[in-house]
TrEMBL record:
Entry's transmembrane regions: 32-53
Keywords from the named record: Heme, Iron, Membrane, Metal-binding, Transmembrane, Transmembrane helix
Stored Gene3D superfamilies: Cytochrome c-like domain (1.10.760.10)
Species whose genome carries this gene: Psychrobacter coccoides
Top-rank taxon, per record: Bacteria
PROSITE patterns, per database record: CYTC (PS51007)
Record InterPro entries: Cyt_c-like_dom, Cyt_c-like_dom_sf, Cytochrome_c-type_DH
Protein name: C-type cytochrome
Length: 247
């Protein structure tokens, strides 16, 4: 093979020829410095020792916790009783009833149940509110449109229906609130009672009651307060007593 003879090749050629062909790369003699080894060993010993101590600590803590739990058990207050639960439930129900009343009824009947003179009848001491639960339930479901007399005054406005906007539970909560607030002391109303009443009037929920006369014919509530029939619808002594026991 004929060797090329230009300047550039010549220069490189001499550079290459100067390199030691025998050179082999090899690791230099460079031992790990002893302080490094000393630190690594110290850390290893420290780590092992710490693990051992931690294991011991967990065991001790476990015993301590167990002893504490046993001690707590002896001094812990008695379990929450069914009565406590009922009381808490009662508070909850009352608060929910009051809140629903504020939202759906108080704008017209007022927060204190007094109604508005000449326009909205009172719920406080109303014989319709205190009657057998079916009557006030039916009034809420269907509303009223027609003359109605409450506590000596006759009203002829419009009470809206709630059959579509309130469910059984909500109506029960509202009526329970109304029947136990201010001077009222009548039995609580249950969602089951509302469901039954809703069923009973299922065909004409969207027709408001035509006033006091229709309510008298269906529920036997006197259309005029002075009527002796009213006595039947007043809260009985037994109801008042039940209410006291329940509180
Ligand atoms: C838009 C105003 C309005 C709202 C809201 C309203 N009512 Fe009435 N309510 C009336 C009017 C007016 C009457 C009387 C109807 C009439 O004059 O024909 C009445 C009558 C009643 C009666 C029978 C009469 C009496 O005083 O006992 C009851 C019970 C009653 N409402 C309860 C409620 C309850 C409970 C609510 C809430 C769920 C409610 N109302 C919401 C206006 C209202």
């Amino acid at each position: 093979m004929k060797k090329r003879n230009n300047k550039l090749t010549k220069d490189f050629g001499s550079a290459v020829r100067n390199v030691d062909d025998k050179f082999e790369p090899s690791e230099l003699q460079n031992p790990v410095p002893w302080p490094f080894i000393a630190i690594a060993v110290a850390l290893a010993i420290f780590g092992g020792f710490t693990l051992y101590l931690d294991a011991q600590a967990t065991d001790d803590g476990g015993d301590e916790q167990l002893a504490k739990t046993v001690a707590d058990k002896d001094t812990a207050p008695a379990k929450v009783t069914a009565a406590d639960m009922d009381e808490a439930d009662g508070d909850m129900t009352a608060a929910q009833g009051a809140a629903l009343f504020a939202t759906h009824c108080a704008t017209c009947h007022q927060t204190n149940g007094s109604g508005v003179r000449g326009a909205i009848p009172p719920l406080d001491e109303s014989r319709y509110v205190l009657a057998e639960a079916t009557a006030p339930i039916a009034i809420l479901l269907r509303g009223i449109s027609g003359p109605i007399e409450v506590k000596g005054n006759t009203y002829n406005g419009r009470m809206p229906s709630f059959y579509a906007t309130l469910d059984d539970k909500e109506i029960a909560l509202i009526l329970t609130h109304v029947r136990s607030s201010w001077s009222n002391a009548a039995e609580a109303v249950t969602a089951e009672q509302v469901a039954r009443t809703r069923q009973a009037f299922a065909g004409n929920l969207n027709q408001p009651w035509q006033g006091g006369f229709e309510l008298q014919s269906v529920f036997g509530i006197a259309s005029v307060s002075s009527d002796p029939i009213q006595a039947q619808t007043e809260v009985t002594a037994q109801h008042a007593e039940d209410q006291e026991v329940a509180q």
